[in-house]
Amino acid sequence: MTRFHCEQALIGGTSERDVDIMVNGGRITAIASGVPPAPDAQRLYGFTIPGMANAHSHAFHRALRSRTQANRGTFWNWREVMYRAAERLTPDNYRRLARATFAEMAMAGITAVGEFHYVHHQLDGRPYDDPNAMSEALLGAAADAGIRITLLDTLYLHGGLGPNGYVAPTGAQRRYSDGSVDAWAERVDSLRPNEGQIVGAAVHSVRAVDPEAIAGVATWATEKGAPVHAHVSEQIAENEQCSAHHGCTPCQLLHSHGLLSPRFSAVHATHLSPTDIALLHETGSTVCMCPTTERDLGDGVGPTREFADAGIPITLGSDSHAVIDHFEESRAIELDERLISEERGVHTAGDLLRMATATGQQSIGWHDAGTLAVGHRADLVTVALDSVRTAGADPSDPVATSVFAASASDVRSVVVDGRLIVEDHRHLGIDVATELAASITDLMED
Description:
Blueprint: E1 2-11, E2 14-24, E3 27-32, E4 42-50, E5 52-57, H1 75-88, H2 91-107, E6 110-117, H3 133-145, E7 148-155, E8 160-162, E9 165-167, H4 181-189, E10 197-203, H5 211-224, E11 228-232, H6 236-246, H7 250-256, E12 264-268, H8 274-283, E13 286-289, H9 291-297, H10 304-310, E14 314-316, H11 326-341, H12 349-356, H13 358-363, E15 380-383, H14 398-404, E16 411-416, E17 419-423, E18 426-427, H15 432-444
Parallel strand pairs: 1-4, 5-6, 6-7, 7-10, 10-11, 11-12, 12-13, 13-14
Antiparallel strand pairs: 1-2, 2-3, 4-15, 8-9, 15-16, 16-17, 17-18
Helix pairs in contact: 2-3, 2-15, 11-12, 12-14
């Protein structure tokens, strides 16, 4: 039995003071507010919120940060650097890089990650002796960093969708393809996740997966009851290619082959039609927005007002890790909308925090996380209210302070499943800055 005493904590949507939280077996067993700290309590100074979920990550993209801005930072320059990184990954160096990346997430208050994983095989496309060597590297990296992981094992079969149909994968893309949806399913079925790990599925995109294979992933996810995600309408060119070849939008294509459901998350969903939005609503699907990546790549701003009006849940991802900061991702949902509409207040601070916590955890399969409540996983993230960013804010509204003023640097401590992994802004198991520098230099420098 472990006891935590929070100076302030978010309980049932309300900030309460002097909160005592009892934990056993990684779960919250009792909560009491307005009580003095017990002698044996671990003191948490600041505002404690539930653990946040990074619903969309490509761990190896962390190596790209600041390296893709040459030649005015065009998309093609970004893509060239990304493929160079993908070509150099091995199970060993990927585990080291992902371990440091996931530890950076932990330091930012992220307690679970949805890893959209598509680099499966050797550079020539042949499987490793262990066909899941790269998947196991990611599972091990999350365990090393102390956070939960949902491995969204991604189907990627084609190199793109051209005027004459699907084209074969080339270069680094050969690492991504299992050859068929049946071969993908056989490989994924051989994974054996441990506690704190979920295996889900993903369709990379309608450019990389044909309709028959989309249906195969949908069937697999339904049979397993697993979360399933897909990149959807990130750029206008994707919509144009899908319309030219299939006569419909990507969202409509995915729906017609059974992918949309309450377990489905549409990642990016930047350029959707009213029909697409209606389909997401009718099927109970979720949208995962990645504002800092969408800014970095020049994708555009998604229709978050329309999502909110339709009651479509929104979650957050750091995607290419231009930054890893869910306070920045959450407030970007509202601030980007303000730029488009010239109005304030479409999304409240409470709405934005739920995107980062409860809704995000649910979208990657952790339905017992994201809320500080008895019976839920003991994920406690404490935000400093006395930093240069948060000092002087309204003490009666720490939610607004966290969302609109704080940064990842203000995360003082992190508890995952009852275990303290970040204390005084420091990861207790990994020298994160040193490991990031070493693993990225090893991967990217000639």
